[in-house]
Amino acid sequence: MSHAVAHPVGHPAAHPGHAAGPPAGHALVTGATGLIGRWLIPELTRLDRDVVALVRRAGERRAELLAWVGNHGGVPARVTVIEGDLAAPGLGLDEEGRRLVGSSRDVFHAGALM
User: Fold this and answer.
1) Reduced to 3 states, what is the DSSP secondary structure of residue 112?
2) Sorting pLDDT into bands at 50, 70 and 90, what band is 114?
3) Which residues contact 20 (CB under 8 A, 6 or more apart)?
4) What is the rounded CA–CA span in Å between residue 56 and residue 71?
5) DSSP H helices in the chain
6) Which pLDDT score, from 0 to 100, does residue 1 have?
7) Domain ranges in the chain?
8) Which CATH superfamily hosts domain 22-109?
């Protein structure tokens, strides 16, 4: 008897050979470095979710966020950090950022203007 394993949409095994970055169906988290977002991301990755984290000054903050995820039981390899700003026109997204935001299955809006 064979046992097939079903993977949820968005799980890498469900989309062999997908392009770089998370597959369609990932979760978008705004406010990823804030109080709620930084605890939410490790939990989502523990649930086998791929996450796109919208972060201001992403280049400066990427390593710290990914270390936090790993140190709190999450899977940093499931997190894609993109540059964005809630106060900027178009969220300050580049073309790749717009593609990732547009293909998100779930949005966790935990961002705020400070």
Assistant:
1) coil
2) confident
3) none
4) 22
5) 37-46, 58-71, 95-102
6) 42
7) 22-109
8) NAD(P)-binding Rossmann-like Domain (3.40.50.720)
Spatial neighbors of 81 by CB under 8 A, at least 6 apart, are: 32, 53, 55, 58, 61, 62, 65, 66
pTM, two decimals, is 0.78
Of 102, 95, 65, 60, the closest CA to residue 80 belongs to 65
Exposure of 36 by Cβ count < 10 A (0-12 exposed, 13-18 middle, 19+ buried)?
A: middle
CA gap 37, 31 in Å, rounded: 5
Closest CA to 105 of 26, 46, 49: 26
**Average pLDDT rounded to a whole number, residues 104-114:** 90
| pLDDT top residue among 40 and 114 | 40
Cα–Cα distance measured from residue 99 to residue 52, given in angstroms and rounded to the nearest whole number: 11
DSSP three-state, residue 81: strand
CB burial of 40-60 (b: ≥16 within 10 Å; e: otherwise) equals bbbebbeeebbbbbbbbebee
